[in-house]
Amino acid sequence: MLAAALVFQDRIRTRTPAGFAGVAMEKIDERSPYAADPRWNVAKSELRHLVSMGATKSDVILKINATLRLLGDEHSMLVDPVTVKEKMSAFKGDGTPRRIEVASIDDYMYVKLPTLTEFDEAIAAKANADVSNGGAAAECGVILDLRENGGGSMWKMISAIAPLVGEGRLGYFVSGDGTRQAWGIRENRAFLGEKSMGAIPAYGKSMLSDLPVAVLIGPGTLSSGEVVASVFSTRSKARLFGQPTGGMADAREAFSLGDGSILFLTTARLAGRDGVTVPGRLRPDVWISQERSEEKDLTLVAAEEWLQSGCR
């Protein structure tokens, strides 16, 4: 009842630009790890002044989004109702089935992990089995290609490659007040803090988490794709190849503002399994400044050479 009453209050308040700005600022104050930045208080004063001078909701959206970028938050955004519908349509895609490529090449396994959604459980389960079954032939290791992974459901992605990841704590999410929530896999279930995030398909006794893994990253690796990459960034038998990621390695939640607008807000920063907070973009261990030359994928070639050097 209380939650419903609060939603109704927000719906009433957001009818005016002043109320709309007020609700958005309250959400950021309450949940954003960037709200502690002194520049946010300055921006709030400027926003109140803009509204008092007759600013529209569109003006409020522009100001809040510009301020979030100024604070270093590349992932959050306030979106109007029309844009929300456009983004939802784009997220659903064009109907083309998603596919996780798992292939045995010479003496290593190649896995191309794309964006997955909460609805891709069957795709993740099939990839989980394919990765587990292909591990026997991967004598030299695995190449995990995340260069076209723009985010989505991190839990479905982790489920898909669980045989490579192994069980245990895989990282942390750190809120604005410093509270840490561990996340990972335990007894065939993904977990976040004390909360179960869903079952992981049984991948048998053959764990592949000791294999060398070359992870391919780049500016197209975003959000949950970066979370997946972070799992391997501190592992002794793993290396990141390519270019820096897009810089959205954090936890983001969606808050409806009552008028159809949505505030997609960063609510926690990502930390690796070593507890160190990821500083924006994940950077490769092996930097490939030019990804392609003629017909060669230089990032892939470098990853292959690294795996082969440890297999001789």
From TrEMBL:
One of its GO terms (cellular component) is outer membrane-bounded periplasmic space. Gene3D superfamilies: 2-enoyl-CoA Hydratase, Chain A, domain 1. GO terms for biological process: proteolysis; signal transduction. Residues 81-289 form the Tail specific protease domain. Coiled coil: none annotated. Pfam families: Peptidase_S41. This is S41 family peptidase.
